[in-house]
Amino acid sequence: MNPTHLIAWFDAHARTLPWREPDTTPWGVLVSEVMLQQTPVHRVTGVWTEWLARWPTPSSLAAETPGTVVRAWGKLGYPRRALRLHAAATAIAAQHDDVVPADVDVLLALPGIGAYTARAVVAFGYGHRVPVVDTNVRRVVARAVHGMADSGPPSTSRDLSDVERMLPGTRPASFSAALMELGAVVCTARRPRCADCPVAGECAWVRAGRPARTAPPRAAQRFAGTDRQVRGLLLDVLRAAADPVPRARLDAVWVDAPQRDRCLGSLLVDGLVEQTRDGSFALPGERAAAPGS
């Protein structure tokens, strides 16, 4: 795959996303990567912009209560990510002089930072030559390099090795971003637009006649009626309240009592909800507002 062609295509056609602006700090990249986990881009852009305006440094976020951070997370979903980001910000402020580390292994030592996020921060936040592999990249490499319709089961060593061999010495982060963009908007899973692909002429899958995928398509995840939905409804009540909430207000959000109780219990275990001494419920760090707590 010719890196020059792909980077030129990216420069001309990449989506305008706020965290791609040249003045974005490594902290801004870290926030974007955490928010984008399992969440579509269009749901993240506005929240990311608000967060960076409100908390431009790790220490500014670390100074907030976890409950404030969960409240600001809003409807992005998977709110434990907000707590992990708050914990990472606290560690960066205390252990790294408020500067996001530029080393993958040091980032991995921070709470809640996994291998993909660490590599993405080093690549996109600092421009270093580090392979970054997500689902879109794996699909592009599987097709363009290996001639397969789908990437099959992940293999960390193989996937990183594939991408590292492709990284150019100049603008490696732009190349990685271009691979992701290509998989997100052109080389998509269900309806690839090969006519619009800048590397179609050298794509092994196209040359092989675009053979059909061998793995069955993944079923869409159900949301309605799941514990995820119920947890979200319970958190909605707490985010909208200025003070701790009595149990009756939480009981009103879902008719299935066993499921509701199970979900409330899991929120308590995850640290997303706390119970006051008078039996009310609040976001973490906000119990002091309860009478007699």
Approximately what portion of the residues adopt beta-strand conformation?
A: under 5%
Instruction: Estimate the mean pLDDT confidence.
Output: 92
Radius of gyration: 22 Å
**Shape from CA axes?**
globular
Q: Strand pairing plus helix content: what structural class?
A: mainly alpha
CATH topology of the largest domain: the name is Endonuclease III, domain 1
| Count of domains | 3
List low-pLDDT spans.
289-293
| CATH structural class of the largest domain | Mainly Alpha
Instruction: Kindly state the percentage of residues in helix.
Output: 40-55%
Notable characteristics:
single chain, about 290 residues, mainly alpha, Endonuclease III, domain 1, Endonuclease Iii, domain 2, Arc Repressor Mutant, subunit A, 3 domains, two-stranded antiparallel ribbon, 2 strands, about 55% helix, disordered C terminus
What's a quick, concise take on this entry?
53% of the residues lie in helices and 1% in strands. The protein has 293 residues and is mostly helical. β1 (274-275) and β2 (281-282) form a beta hairpin.
Task: Tell me about this structure.
The model is unreliable at 289-293 (pLDDT under 50). Helix content is 53%, strand content 1%. The chain is globular. It has 293 residues and is an all-alpha fold. It has a two-stranded antiparallel sheet. It has helices at 3-13, 26-36, 41-54, 58-62, 66-73, 80-95, 104-108, 115-126, 135-144, 156-166, 172-185, 204-207, 227-240, 247-251, 257-270, and strands at residues 274-275, 281-282.
